[in-house]
Amino acid sequence: MVTKSLDVDNDVLLNSILKLGDNSKESYVIFDATNHHIIVECNEFFCNLTNASRSQILKTNYFAWLSDEKMTTIKMIKEKIHNGIMVQAKLHHKGINKPLFWAEIQALPFRNDTNITQYVLVLIKDVTYYHTEDFLMRLENDMYKAIERDSSFEQKMHIICHGLDEFFMPNTSSMVLIKTESNLLQAFTDNCRKKDVPRCCENNDFFTKVMQSETSIFIENLDEVYIPDEHKQFAASSHKPYGLFIPIRNQQRQVIGLFSIYYEQAHNDSSYFKSMFRKIGALVALAFTYARTQRKIWDLAYTDITTGLPNRHSFVNFLEKEVERGQNGYIKIVKPSEFHQVVELYGREFGDELLRQLAKRLEQDKPADREYIARFTSSSLILSTMTFDENLNNYEWRIKETIRQPFIIGGKQIYITLKTGIASFNDDIKINDAIRFADNALSFATDKPGTHTEIFTTEKNDVLVQRMTVLNHLSQAIKNKEITVHLQPKVDLRNGEIQSIEALARWISPKLGFVSPAIFIPVAESAGKVREIDVLVLETVLSWLAERQKLGKKLVKIAVNISPDHFYYTHFVQDTLKLVRQYGIDPSNIILEVTENIGLVDFQSAYKIIQELKSYGFKTSVDDFGTGFSSLSYLQQLPFTELKIDRSFINALEDPATLAIVRSIIQLALNLGMISVAEGIETEEQVEILRALGCTVGQGFFYFKPMAIEELDLILDQ
Predict the structure, then answer these.
(1) 520-539 tens-digit pLDDT
(2) 635 vs 245, which has greater pLDDT?
(3) Residue ranges of the GGDEF domain (predicted)?
């Protein structure tokens, strides 16, 4: 009878986790932590991700789907989930008849009534593209830093080799061979392998063949090719029997050397390697050119290597200077619809040449207003026009004239259509935002047939007008202190006494009337004014506390919301401490509330800031917790005082899945030594459930609505 009851409880738990997995819209599996980590459920997304059927997945050990190259990581995951701790990790994931791919996994353990981890929900996301792009970006940044430090060419090549070996670890060993003026090849490896390979080797027939080829050459048996014995020993010593040899060309398509990549298993995604090493080869070429002439390298630092056009860095740098001069205008992102087909049919070089010729035609036919053209992505250009008024009809006519004649590339005639996304920039719209808006508009244009242009707008024009109106009045509202503070108590659920208070910004404009915080706070964030609002609210509550303290009245801890922009402000902690001391208030009376995903922006900085606040006596709180699953694994490492459960969960407590989540969050807060606060309580039933779950503090209309300071004074003084 007991066993049956446990089975029923486990079924309820499993169904709740299934709903949670389905609501995540992510690829997921659920495995039984008490039965050899056997997968008991998965969704179609996971089947597609791994190229496997449900029958091939179910009843398998989930950890068998992870590459065993990081056993310490897998061991760590197992230990944490069995201790009931959520964990996030990035590692190689397996599939069926497909290469290993980089996956970001989030493992969420769920315990049964006996407090044993029964099931684990694992959310899996294929991050191979982002991981690769992040690696290439880091490698590029490391290269530019090396250039700025004026590091030697040898040091730069060590950066390339070390980066490759670290990225593919433990699957590859990398070598870069660069032609010398004496027609030898200079060999570069990671510093730790430097002693294994002679500094130079002969430029023999095989290496010449590689450098004369247009594509890479794959070798299954290194004994069959004539390469130096030391290079074969280099591969054999790390158990890498396969070889991939890729020519390296400079911007003028002149061969400057080759990559010798040795790896342990044949990789069946050659396009992945070619694309990656084409970009890395461009970095090698950049360093090579810099070694010859320092002046040219600084030009190339702001140049797209493959087209010779200004790159994105150059574009942003140019536009920032124009904005500093008070210039306004428009940003256009232009993309040939057929770009990817051209690349697939004729190669990347054709795509680069297409963009080069398109930029030339646009340059020849540009308007009187100053225009700057650069390469934005691999398949698009970005233009800036300095004007207060963009005539769409003129632009569309210009584009049609630009593409009326075919592009001649490699002796072939290529006709194209163009998609354009347009957004404005000015004092109120930052450059990066304008670029993002133009990119969003481009995505809408891409869905339309033929040559098409879209100008960025919000889904409803009146919303955009409203935001702009709010923005126009916001500075004056802050200056005139139109933004006031309402207070909403947090109550001890055990006895109904006020435990602390939350300060909420309210704006009643003489011209606009009541403006919802849901409208003016995002506007303030985008305009860079939210820090002023945070400080205004903090000053108001400090003044109130100081007055009560002066009169010998009861003081209650008060929470103030801090925006991410303010939280990461360089002088945030010291400015806040100075303000609190100015009013003579003990920092222990102040709770600083931040959003759940604050640690995702810059986890290390967030940790230091929270620790520093804690050292001065401030309390910290996580607001709206539960709306951002990706940050759960960070929570255990950030020393918050309080955890506020988002009201959306409290409103749905009758749902078993939601109840399971709230129970887990309350237990998590308890395990981490935090106070759990339930937001949005409206009924007695919710109070009873939360008490039973162990939640100690609540906030909502059931107890108190937000009220003016004077109203709360009367309540506290009773």
Answers:
(1) 888 888 788 889 999 999 99
(2) 245
(3) 327-459
Instruction: Report CA Rg, the chain.
Output: 30
Q: Tell which residue, 633, 570, 564, has the closest CA to residue 595.
A: 564
Q: What is the 3-state secondary structure (H, E, C) of 353-366?
A: HHHHHHHHHHHHCC
Residue 83 burial (C-beta neighbours within 10 Å; 0-12, 13-18, 19+)? exposed
Sign of the C-alpha dihedral, residues 92, 129, 276, 213?
positive
User: How many beta carbons lie within 10 A of that of residue 457, not counting itself?
Assistant: 14
Domains of the chain: which residue ranges?
A: 8-126, 150-299, 312-456, 468-717
* pLDDT reading at 463 higher than 80: no
Residue at 347: amino acid letter: G
Give 266's DSSP letter: -
Residue 178 burial (C-beta neighbours within 10 Å; 0-12, 13-18, 19+): buried
DSSP 265: S
Averaged pLDDT, 59-74: 85
pLDDT tens for 197-237 read 888 999 989 999 999 988 888 888 888 888 988 898 888 88
Cβ atoms of 680 and 658 closer than 8 Å: no
Helices (H), 365-459: 392-402, 431-446
Please state whether the peptide bond connecting residue 510 to the residue before it is cis, i.e. omega within 30 degrees of 0. no
Task: Extract the tokens encoding 35.
Answer: 């039965």
Predicted local distance difference test score (pLDDT) of residue 573: 94
pLDDT one-digit tens code per residue, 147-162: 888 788 888 889 988 8
> What CATH architecture does domain 312-456 belong to?
2-Layer Sandwich (3.30)
Please check whether residue 473 is in contact with residue 510, taking contact to mean a CB–CB distance below 8 angstroms: no
Question: Using an 8 Å Cβ cutoff, are 681 and 690 in contact?
Answer: yes
CATH 3.30.360.10 fits 8-126, yes or no: no
Token pair belonging to 168: 């593919």
Q: 596 and 623 in contact (C-beta within 8 Å)? A: yes
β-bridge mates for residue 90, sequence order: 104
Q: Do domains 8-126 and 150-299 have the same CATH topology?
A: yes
Superfamily of domain 150-299: GAF domain (3.30.450.40)
Q: Given CATH 3.20.20.450, say whether it is the number of domain 468-717.
A: yes
- The span from the CA of 546 to the CA of 558, in Å, is 12
